[in-house]
């Protein structure tokens, strides 16, 4: 991306590809197409991805940006979108190439294959890498966030992990054809298989659905499953992550979780909660903050059970996101059932 960065190093706060994307949107598709031709394929992908996701850019930002490229230009708001990006691409690339490129960029909200890999459970990434050559495994780990790479490395056999670490130290720049081949394997032989496996096991999918049901409907559904499909019912229960499962989060994790909660959500969720759940949060707060939380809960008027359940589901979802990002961890007997 040297060409992109060279053009835009004088402006801060916006990435190089985003700056080029703003300029292209401002000058119109005809001129943008000519500009896009000047970049190689990887740079084009970065620019187009920026166009698709940036949304509204203020006129002031456009003006400051364009001042670095031309001495006089009239600024206006620009809006990056999928349609805008596609129109510019069609002005410079064959339709079939545009279709392929757009499908790749739009997949998982425009995520690259490496970004998609971040959402795959660590155990599955480790299993895939264990079947590949150590050199390939070393390269893949360098493309993952360090925290995820560390978790994956811990799940590999020790001799293989030691070999991979040494290869990372000696890793040299990888040629683009080799990178393309690795990405192809990840896309066609790994991620697709994972997607098919997820679809094949509908217990996990149903557990996710049940996590969002109100208590009355969830109870009714489980009663039906308990009667007709008891083994499946128990498996779905084991895969669910409920408000009560927050007790498997250590104190440091609860403190991180509380920092992410919107104001007013925790008091509502703790209304009528079991004493152990109340203590879970109170013991991780400063004395004054804990006293204020108790007073707020005790002074709260009657609330609908549905509102309390919704608040608890929101907290659970925030917790699951933090677990997926590796910012907090869970423990307990059932931790292997739902993390990841």
TrEMBL record:
Leader sequence segment: none
Keyword set includes Cell inner membrane: no
Highest taxon in the source lineage: Bacteria
Domain Flagellar motor switch protein FliG middle: 123-191
All residue ranges annotated as the Flagellar motor switch protein FliG C-terminal domain in the record: 224-329
InterPro entries associated with the record: Flg_Motor_Flig, Flg_Motor_Flig_C, FliG_a-hlx, FliG_M, FliG_N
Subcellular location: Bacterial flagellum basal body; Cell membrane
UniProt KW Ribosomal protein keyword: no
Function comment: FliG is one of three proteins (FliG, FliN, FliM) that forms the rotor-mounted switch complex (C ring), located at the base of the basal body. This complex interacts with the CheY and CheZ chemotaxis proteins, in addition to contacting components of the motor that determine the direction of flagellar rotation.
Family that this chain belongs to: Belongs to the FliG family.
Protein name per its UniProtKB record: Flagellar motor switch protein FliG
Source organism (scientific name): Benzoatithermus flavus
């Amino acid at each position: 991306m040297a060409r992109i960065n060279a053009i835009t190093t004088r402006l801060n706060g916006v990435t190089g590809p985003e700056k080029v994307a703003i300029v292209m949107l401002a000058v119109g598709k005809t001129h943008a197409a000519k500009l896009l031709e000047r970049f190689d394929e990887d740079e084009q992908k970065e620019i187009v991805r920026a166009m698709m996701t940036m949304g509204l850019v203020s006129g002031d930002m456009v003006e400051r940006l364009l001042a670095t490229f031309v001495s006089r230009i009239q600024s206006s708001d620009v809006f990056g979108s999928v349609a805008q990006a596609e129109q510019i691409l069609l002005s410079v690339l064959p339709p079939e190439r545009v279709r392929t490129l757009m499908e790749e960029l739009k997949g998982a909200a425009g995520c690259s294959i490496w970004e998609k890999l971040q959402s795959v459970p660590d155990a599955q990434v480790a299993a895939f890498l264990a079947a590949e050559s150590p050199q390939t495994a070393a390269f893949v780990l360098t493309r993952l966030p360090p925290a995820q790479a560390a978790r994956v490395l811990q799940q590999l056999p020790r001799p293989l992990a030691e070999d991979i670490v040494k290869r990372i130290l000696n890793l040299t720049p990888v040629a683009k054809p080799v990178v393309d081949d690795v990405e192809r394997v990840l896309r066609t032989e790994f991620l697709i298989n994972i997607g098919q496996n997820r679809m094949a096991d509908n217990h996990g999918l149903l557990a996710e659905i049940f996590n969002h049901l109100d208590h009355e409907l969830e109870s009714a559904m489980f009663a039906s499953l308990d009667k007709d499909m008891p083994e499946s019912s128990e498996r779905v229960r084991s895969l669910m992550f409920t408000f009560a499962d927050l007790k498997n989060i250590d104190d440091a994790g609860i403190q991180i979780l509380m920092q992410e909660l919107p104001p007013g959500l925790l008091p509502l969720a703790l209304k009528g909660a079991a004493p152990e759940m109340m203590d879970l949060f109170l013991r991780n707060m400063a004395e004054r903050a804990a006293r204020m939380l108790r007073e707020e809960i005790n002074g709260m008027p009657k609330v609908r059970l549905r509102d309390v359940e919704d608040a608890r589901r929101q907290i659970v979802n925030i917790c699951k996101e933090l677990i997926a990002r590796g910012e907090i961890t869970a423990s307990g007997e059932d931790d292997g059932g739902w993390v990841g």
